[in-house]
Amino acid sequence: MYYRNISDMNQLILKRLSILPRDFDLIVGIPRSGMLPANLLALYLSKPFTDIHSFVNGHIYKSGERGQFIDVTSFKKILIVDDSIASGSAMQKSKDLIRSVHPDFDISFCAIYVVPGKEKAVDYYFELVPLPRYFQWNILHHTSLGKACFDIDGVLCVDPDNDQNDDGPKYRDFILNAAPLYIPSSKVGTLVTSRLEKYRKETEKWLEKNNVRYDKLVMLNLPDMKARQKANNHAAFKADTYKHNEYILFFESSMSQALEINKITKKPVLCTENFEMIFNAQSFAYNLKSGKHFPWLRSFALKIRDKIRKQKKIYN
User: Fold this and answer.
1) Which of 59, 84, 210, 291 is positioned for an S-S bond with 113, CB 3.0–4.6 A?
2) How many Cα atoms within 13 Å fall on the side-chain side of residue 292?
3) Whether residues 168 and 223 fall in one domain
4) Which of the four pLDDT bands, split at 50, 70 and 90, describes residue 306?
5) What is the total count of domains within the chain?
6) Counting runs of H as helices and runs of E as strands, what totals does the chain give?
7) Cα–Cα separations (whole angstroms), residue 90 to 111, 137, 241, 267, 303
8) What are the pLDDT digits (tens) for 157-174?
9) Residues near 178 by Cβ (< 8 Å), separated by ≥ 6?
């Protein structure tokens, strides 16, 4: 599995920006995944940008101008951008559309990530990334989520605050009305949560209300919050379901639990706290601690440390 988040893409574009000529008049993104890299390229190259369908209709976004309709014939050299190429079909449709409307334009095509063997499908690409691959900006819409596990609090919805977490009426109200966070558009394999089994009915009502589709819901079968705090085995409980089934990915909100789940299962875990993919907990934890390879993560590592200490105080 290969994974890239938004930060990865941004750093890659900055690192390899020199591969692009500076004489493009306009950057055009292919909706919807291509809009993000097209916007970044337009920003760094100081060029106007738009989406492909707006371009056909003459609608261009220029710096300092909003909603401007501009004569597209003033743009002669165009760069069409998508986030990635696998089969190349989406890029080919875009080529056919543009050339059918503006056959005389000087048009080049660019993708940030390309599978090996498809390099000639574009004029410019930034990185070769084999399949299977996942991107932060579309992973919640991936059909393979049927083979994934999801935590609930901190992933599908916000975490309860200390006042709401009373194992009583306030907590029940929280479960029924929690603000949603990352709602997948594809059906999920299994939801694995440290919520207690006694809150299953309320949890199922919330999931239905927020259009979360899933095959199974696994909850912690303990009598109350005190028993849950005493057991203090959230990561191990989640890892048990993940490890002993044919799941390929776990979505977890807590970095400390994500590291532990990966350590137990040896399977990848996506932490929604920062959308980092954990493939090797030991290596990732070392890099966080030392900052040797990822100096920008040092402050984040300190936050994780403080959060773990806070959790220990609560459970003790």
Assistant:
1) 84
2) 7
3) yes
4) low
5) 2
6) 11, 15
7) 11, 17, 37, 31, 41
8) 999 999 999 989 999 999
9) 153, 157, 158, 160, 206
